[in-house]
């Protein structure tokens, strides 16, 4: 029978530490993630001494007790526990202890202290590279081969963010997919009938939708172009321009891929149109990202980039809001690629030191691949299910607004930032550049982007 330990979350909102968009939480904590790699764990894979227990699947009549840690709490933890309970019903020889409010730092401490859980759930894909390369999370390859798991059920971009340099130490368990939210009443009032499909259309539409107070301050922003405002991070905005993080040799390509300069130029144009100081004053009065007074929910901004989970927040906090969703706009030279976007998500794996990794993989496999489980969790958490079968399930609860994100997830244009042995440090480097750039603190764009590459390469920030 499932046992749940919902430990205090130290006042952090249920979604504040979750996957990116949740992205902002990941970017600002990128340097902190380096503490995980500092564990200096030797690489321990399934089939070696990394688990301390059998890697074989237990017999049907063998009594098994395992534990699972996750960052979920309160209502969301209850949804995960329902999934675990369904697993126990299908596997009556299992007893699972579920412990919530466990973040990546707590997990790293448990691994270091030799008391890791059997199964771990993380909200941050930025940890995957260092978890795989250090052995903090065990290589799932032998388990996948043992059970003949069909990885083709997972979209290619999602397979990419759950492995690192040939080692798969994680599987996806729901995804966050990003798109454009727009206010229908404000569109109608401005005479705008369609969401922008290109970045130039986004810029012009933002101007049409913006309202100023008599003193010239911003009353309603058509679109806030500041990087690191809500979900406006390099990871989310980069795919709008088709920006690549690395070149063919695996080196950082922030200065050599012209898409990054195009993104920065486009963004600065809209920042300058508003006035950086006016934008700073406007966002100083913004509601918290995961609160009822978040700016899109209150009508303070007319268009915003955000994840599919925002639909649940709107249902709860602003049920009368007339809004729609669309894929993120793309640069004008890529209009034929419209329909894609950024994805990240919750990941699940087996930590080093798990007492019974062979039994643990049964739960990992169930939560990652069982269609009924994924659909139920998606319906409850309003995240995108991560297998092709679950996306097509008739039991999936879909509104027109949520359908956008399912379509983006199933498209050929789905993208993610690459995993790194240094976690999200390279993301912070890029983010810091944009903070300086949008404030007018960069005089030579090309030189500044070249310095970003140098800083990332010196820190071995991408590709190990």
Write the topology of this structure.
Blueprint: E1 3-6, H1 23-28, H2 34-37, E2 64-69, H3 74-90, E3 94-100, H4 104-113, E4 119-122, H5 128-134, H6 141-147, H7 156-160, E5 171-183, H8 184-189, H9 199-209, E6 211-212, E7 218-223, H10 234-237, H11 258-274, H12 276-284, H13 295-298, E8 301-307, H14 310-317, E9 323-326, E10 341-349, H15 357-369, H16 371-381, H17 388-391, H18 400-409, E11 414-415, H19 425-438, H20 445-458
Parallel strand pairs: 1-3, 2-3, 2-4, 7-8, 10-11
Antiparallel strand pairs: 4-10, 5-8, 5-9, 5-10, 6-7
Computed Rg? 22 Å
Output mean pLDDT: 89
Shape: globular
Number of helices: 20
| Distance between the first and last residues' Cα | 42 Å
Strand content: 5-15%
- CATH homologous superfamily of the largest domain - what is it? Periplasmic binding protein-like II
The largest sheet, given as strand count, sense and whether it forms a barrel, is: 11 strands, mixed
**Poorly predicted runs of 5 or more residues:** 6-51
Helix content: 25-40%
Structure class = alpha/beta
Function: Part of a binding-protein-dependent transport system for a sugar.
Main location: other
Protein name: Probable sugar-binding periplasmic protein
Organism: Oerskovia enterophila
Model description:
It comes from Oerskovia enterophila. Pfam families: SBP_bac_1. One of its GO terms (cellular component) is cell envelope. There is one protein chain. It is built from 20 helices and eleven strands. By secondary structure, it is an alpha/beta fold. It folds into two domains: 3-176 and 344-415, D-Maltodextrin-Binding Protein, domain 2; 177-342, 3-Layer(aba) Sandwich (D-Maltodextrin-Binding Protein, domain 2). Strands 1, 2, 3, 4, 5, 6, 7, 8, 9, 10 and 11 form an eleven-stranded mixed β-sheet that branches. Strand 2, helix 3 (74-90) and strand 3 form a beta-alpha-beta unit. Helix 3 (74-90) runs antiparallel to helix 16 (371-381) and helix 11 (258-274) packs across helix 12.
